[in-house]
Specification:
The complex is a heterodimer of chains A (296) and B (140). Chain A has 16 helices and 3 strands. Chain A has 296 residues and is mainly alpha-helical. Chain A has one domain. In chain A, helix 7 crosses helix 9 and helix 14 packs antiparallel against helix 16. Chain A is rod-shaped and about 155 Å long. About 3% of the residues of chain A have low confidence. Chain B has one domain: SH3 type barrels (Roll), CATH 2.30.30.40. Chain B is built from 4 helices and 8 strands. The chains are: A mainly alpha (296), B alpha+beta (140). At the A-B interface, helix 5, helix 7 and strand 1 of A face helix 3, helix 4 and strand 8 of B. Strand 1 of chain A pairs antiparallel with strand 8 of chain B, so a sheet runs across the interface.
């Protein structure tokens, strides 16, 4: 009896085991089939999924390249055409306590007078920015500016008061500075060799060369307070003024007398004794302007 | 009694004046220069309420008289009444533009940042543009 029961149970188990083996795969086998890409490769190909993966790769590369380019552009330095107006204003700002341009003053009408003066000489579409200073340390100057942008002119109020200048005389003084600016004298004297690699460059991965900017600022100080312009440069400017003003003898006369005024001021006023060092010299200019005596 | 009457007159007058002008929004503008100032009054030497940078958006305001409904024009349009945050003040028309400008700070952001400008520098830079006499010769 016992033997029969064991035999029957054994048959039952063997039949059930046989059924399980036939019906189910293991989870592992099923997963392995899913990971077997070779089996579904043809399906993917026919669905163009491989192609879209390639397209996406190219797009991602392009986005990455643009992002890197954008990050690099953040460190771009201004070029020669964009730098000078900015740096001249930077110098003015850094020297604000010395230059004293933030002061209350009346409207002298210089802007309108200079505008009419330029138009009278046939110089059109020329923008300018005149900054009045409340210091005798600087008489007048044209700071470097970007090509085809406003010319930056600085003018001392104590200087024009000491000379008691009229609007025409002030315009003549500013026009001389304008011509110096167009000739590029200040820029060429202030130029440092290291600027060549600096302007228009990119400093990603490095620190900004602030020492270079400090050097350039010192050059500005040297030219404006100490060295000024050379005799040859002054001669060239006087010659240009003579040529441009000769058609209007009243204006030419005013210019001649202005130089006389400046010469007198420089000789008697201690505050302006350095003027001839910066703009040599009013007396010489009058000699250059005087018509030559010729014996016929 | 006298003090009471004086105070009564003062308050009644001030309440009468308070209702004469109202300010309305009149569009938007942006600062064109590297830095600028919003002034307390429409004069160059007036106290600065705040310093703003290039591209800063400003709400343009107009003052309208309540009774006559006419707009106040400041110095023949040379000055604009503007608002920025809690500040309402004046700024010169030549320092504003209708569209957001391409600022030097935006073209060279790291260079400008690394200059390490102090608050005083920004203040003086704004004052520089207040004091410039800007002009341009024109063709006949």
């Amino acid at each position: 009896m016992k033997t029969l029961i064991i035999f029957l149970v054994g048959c039952l188990f063997s039949s059930s085991i046989y059924c399980v083996e036939e019906v189910s795969e293991t989870l592992l086998e099923r997963n392995q089939q899913l990971l077997d890409f070779q089996a579904i490769r043809d399906v993917l190909k026919s669905d163009s999924l491989e192609q879209s993966v390639e397209t996406q790769k190219v797009e991602v590369q392009s986005v990455k390249k643009n992002r890197e380019q954008g990050n690099k552009m953040l460190f771009q330095l201004p070029s020669d055409r964009e730098f000078w107006s900015f740096f001249s204003e930077y110098w003015l700002v850094k020297n604000a306590p010395v230059l004293k341009y933030d002061f209350i003053k009346p409207d002298y009408g210089i802007k309108e007078a200079f505008k009419i003066f330029l138009e009278g000489l046939g110089i059109y579409n020329q923008g300018f920015r005149i900054l009045l200073l409340n210091t005798p340390a600087i008489s007048h100057f044209a700071l470097p500016s970007n090509p085809n942008e406003d010319v930056i002119l600085i003018l001392s109020v104590p200087f024009i008061r000491a000379l008691d200048l009229s609007k025409t005389e002030i315009s003549l003084l500013l026009f001389e500075d304008y011509l110096r600016s167009k000739q590029g004298y200040f820029k060429s004297m202030a130029y440092i060799p290291e600027l060549e690699g600096f302007l228009g460059g990119n400093y990603q991965g490095k620190t900004l060369d602030r020492e270079l900017l400090a050097k350039l600022s010192k050059k500005y100080d040297e030219i404006i307070y100490d060295k000024g312009f050379q005799f040859q440069q002054q001669f060239e400017i006087t010659r240009q003024m003579d040529t441009r003003l000769k058609p209007d003898l009243n204006l030419w006369n005013t210019y001649f007398l202005l130089n006389q005024k400046i010469d007198n001021l420089v000789k008697r006023n201690v505050l302006y004794q350095k003027y001839n060092q910066i703009y040599p010299s009013a007396e010489l200019k009058m000699n250059w302007l005087k018509p030559k005596n010729s014996v016929l | 009694m006298k003090t009471f009457l004086a105070l009564l007159c003062f308050f009644s007058l001030s309440s009468a004046f308070a209702a004469t002008v109202k300010r309305e929004r009149n569009g938007q503008a942006y600062l064109v220069n590297i830095f600028g100032h919003i002034h307390q009054n429409p004069t160059k030497s007036s106290q600065s309420l705040t310093t703003i940078a290039c591209g800063h958006p400003l709400r343009l305001l107009k003052e309208i008289a309540v009774e006559t409904k006419t707009e106040t024009v400041l110095f023949a349009g040379e000055w604009n009444l503007v608002a920025s945050g809690p500040y309402e003040g004046y700024i010169r028309q030549e320092q504003l533009t209708a569209k957001k400008p391409e600022c030097f700070q935006d073209r060279f952001p790291k260079f400008f940042n690394d200059l390490g400008l102090e608050v005083t520098d920004m203040f003086y830079w704004g004052r520089l543009y207040d004091h410039y006499e800007m002009g341009k010769s024109e063709q006949p």
